[in-house]
Task: structure prediction
Amino acid sequence: MTQTTKHQKLDSIWKRGCDFLGTEHAILGGAMSWISERNLVSAISNAGGFGIIACGSMNPDMLAAEIKATFELTKKPFGVNLITMHPELDALIDVCTELKVSHVVLAGGLPSSASIKRIKEGGAKAICFSPALILAKKLIRSGADALVIEGSEAGGHIGPVSTSVLVQEILPYIAKVPVFVAGGIGNGKMMASYMKLGASGCQIGTRFVCSTECVAHENFKKAFIKANARDAMPTVQIDPKFPVIPVRALQNKGTQEFMEFQKKTADKFHNNEATQKEAQLEIEHYWVGALRNAAIDGDVENGSLMAGQCVGMVKSEQPVSEIINEFTEQAEEALTVFEQP
Ligand SMILES: Cc1cc2nc3c(=O)[nH]c(=O)nc-3n(C[C@H](O)[C@H](O)[C@H](O)COP(=O)(O)O)c2cc1C
Result:
């Protein structure tokens, strides 16, 4: 357990976010498949942030085991991130309800009102990603208790619009629920600036990958420490008639292999060997496997090194508490500077 410092300005500016999450700091540890498991999640929560388990492709039993194991490691609040296209989504929500998870995040596509309702009826708060203002309003009407807006600087699956533009388009117009900002947040000064613009807190992924408590393979962590912002590039859609969601990752042999896989999968769709949904699901399965290869097995040549642009700010392996302390110190300092005449 870490001792954390009080920051007067920060404590006041992110109070809404902290109250919503039940935490000391309104810093969400963005769910990362394979990586955001019991160890990283509990470390973030124990350091005063809000850890989030990445359910990814887990089945309900696996998710239940992960949640129970996380409860063993922390008494502080944490959440669970579920992918909306998971074929057992309802059963996964029910696991969260049974185990009394306080917050459920719905990611990977626009969630249905029914999923949001199911989470809330189970007693948890529903957090949803919103890629545009119009969708933010729709999600709030559907019952979302908070929103995350994530820009294209982020690691993993990304939308087309940068964080700085989304913030301007969405933050001033959403007052009803807390909004957390994600994507490209590499230090506390940036975090403070988004809160000055109305965010209730921030979600951070890439900066937590090289934490001591994170189970990612040492090869994966070394690749992060070596990389610069420009190495973290999005994949491109090679067939205009076959949409795929871009993934931001460090370039390697695996990136090239994905382009070939994408072409083969698109051909299957055009030849009526698979429906668009089936073909897109194949692409998603590809990513799940490729990320595991790199992040867990350490094959950083052929696997996927999903990383955000702020990877260039990852300089060493550090304990989670140290990373969070850096963010809060820098944010408090920035807020003090903003207030000077
Ligand atoms: C390796 C990696 C895996 C990720 N996996 C997921 C995921 O399974 N579900 C999800 O909602 N977001 C996922 N993300 C996005 C993070 O939760 C987070 O929103 C993002 O990393 C924030 O941007 P940043 O990397 O610039 O800090 C992933 C990001 C990375 C870097």
